[in-house]
Amino acid sequence: MAWIRFNEPFGTEEIVKMAVETVGLHLYEQRTVEEQLRQKMASLELYQGIAAPFFMQSGTAALEVMALAMEFTPGEEVILPSFTYPATANAFLMAGARLVFADIEPDTLNLDPKSVERLLSSRTKAIVPIHYGGVAADVPQLEKLAESCGAVLLEDAAHCIGASFRGKPLGTFGAMGTSSFHSTKNITSAGFGGCLFVEDPNRRSMVEEITVQGTDRAAYRAGRVSAYRWKRQGGEYVMPVFSMAYLRASLERLEEVTERRKMLWKKYHELLSPLEEEGFLKLCKVPESAGINGHVFYVLLKDRKEREGLKHHLHERRIEAFSHYEPLHDTVIGRSAGRCDGEMEITGSISGRILRLPMHMELSTDQVERICQAVEEFHRKRF
Ligand SMILES: *Cc1c(COP(=O)(O)O)cnc(C)c1O
């Protein structure tokens, strides 16, 4: 029997062909291709009316630019989940912030506002949810908490292209937000890529400067200044032309990709619900008003041993399945970089019990059925 892979990068011959054509016409015309990409994004229903994003070399690069734009001074703090990819933490650490790790909610694996509230201080400058698997965090509550102490909401929406809350795209709620087009995400810009949404108009020129070595080159190009100057810390972050062309062609398919992944996600959910009712596993509880994008489908097992058992059982049946983040707070660097919310009980528990199942565009509903049968078989075998 053929392996069912965990992930397959999204791309088609048509997308490659379109990207190559664009590059053939405009190889050294970065701004032309960028404008085409922005227009494509603005033409998608979900992204209409948002400020044009800045396209970056990776989601990590977008996080780094976002963190630099916060201009942290020593001692200022950022509250983030411990259950995330190290990129979230690295960006703020590099920008000079103290990291404050909050616990997550067991129903969504997103930042728990109660934990965030316990961690607020006069030094809190930003609160950073990640919207795990493209399922919205408790945005209204987190916004309220940020407001209460003069901090801003920043989103690491790396999982979230095509996902929304109350009809608005994730990544566009905070003052700034990032997304990723890495090949493991729903759509890709040919391997590596990301973007930065800057909804706060006062921050756009600073962000632009950071992406061009901290200079006002954009103002120079627009004829607003006679020579460009080095004004702040910055770097080389802008997405390469081929990636932009590839992403533009991929965006044509975004709605279809989101719909298909949602359909597969719902199929999993429906087929595994009886096992949840029997108490064998737990599934994600999608909050009302959250528009999902089917980025991740996971199950939570009773304990680490059972998770490893199920993973092994699936591998024996040629089905790839993986755990996910190991808590960042519980590491040598995590401890030296900041503080956390006590025992971080849910984070510790979830990281040992989560198992992610295959999810990608090549996956068929028959395969989802085969996977769910294998999960059920493992459950029955234990009695
Ligand atoms: C993928 C990911 C990133 C980094 O994005 P890249 O494009 O791979 O650099 C950051 N944060 C989270 C939560 C991610 O899943």
Topology:
Elements: H1 13-26, H2 30-43, E1 54-56, H3 59-68, E2 77-81, H4 86-94, E3 98-102, H5 113-119, E4 124-127, H6 139-148, E5 152-156, E6 164-165, E7 168-169, E8 176-180, E9 194-198, H7 204-211, H8 217-221, H9 241-251, H10 254-277, E10 290-291, E11 297-300, H11 304-316, H12 332-337, E12 338-340, H13 345-353, E13 354-357, H14 365-381
Parallel strand pairs: 2-3, 2-4, 3-12, 4-5, 5-8
Antiparallel strand pairs: 1-9, 6-7, 6-10, 8-9, 11-13
Bound molecules: pyridoxal-5'-phosphate.
Query: Hey, roughly how much beta strand do the residues contain?
Result: 5-15%
- Strand count: 13
The secondary-structure element order is HHEHEHEHEHEEEEEHHHHEEHHEHEH
| Helical content class | 40-55%
Q: Which outline best applies?
A: globular
Strand order of the largest sheet: 1-9-8-5-4-2-3-12
Mean model confidence by pLDDT: 97
pLDDT under 50 segments (min length 5)? Answer: none
Q: How would a textbook summarize the main sheet?
A: 8 strands, mixed
* Number of helical stretches of at least 4 residues: 14
Query: What radius of gyration results from the CA coordinates?
Result: 21 Å
The rounded distance between the terminal residues' Cα atoms is 27 Å
Bound molecules: pyridoxal-5'-phosphate
Structural classification: alpha/beta
Your description of this structure?
The structure is a single chain. The protein is an alpha/beta fold. Helix content is 41%, strand content 13%. The protein is built from 14 helices and 13 strands. The protein has helices spanning 13-26, 30-43, 59-68, 86-94, 113-119, 139-148, 204-211, 217-221, 241-251, 254-277, 304-316, 332-337, 345-353, 365-381; strands spanning 54-56, 77-81, 98-102, 124-127, 152-156, 164-165, 168-169, 176-180, 194-198, 290-291, 297-300, 338-340, 354-357. The protein has an 8-stranded mixed β-sheet, with helices on both faces. The longest helix is centred in the C-terminal third of the chain and has 24 residues, at 254-277. The radius of gyration is 21 Å and the shape is globular. The mean pLDDT is 97. Residues 58-60, 84-85, 87-88, 130, 156, 158-159, 180, 182, 194 line the site of pyridoxal-5'-phosphate.
